[in-house]
Amino acid sequence: MFDYLMEHTQLVISGTAVQLPAADRPPALGFQSPFGSAEFLAGLLVLPLSEVFRQGLALQRDNELTI
Fold first, then answer.
1. pTM, rounded to two decimals
2. What is the four-CA torsion angle of 17, 22, 26, 28, rounded to 10 degrees?
3. Which DSSP state fits 30?
4. Mean pLDDT across the stretch 53-59?
């Protein structure tokens, strides 16, 4: 499945295409990260969270200007 996704998808972060590294071996039972570290995946989770906070601040500023 990982090989299929590598051939048919493109990951774009902030307008920049990101090439995922090739997996060393097919995953056994369960999911194995091809990136080799939990820090990378944690960083990917922080990106959408920061966008949520940015949108929240924009809504708050807009609400403060409403009479």
1. 0.42
2. -70
3. S
4. 93
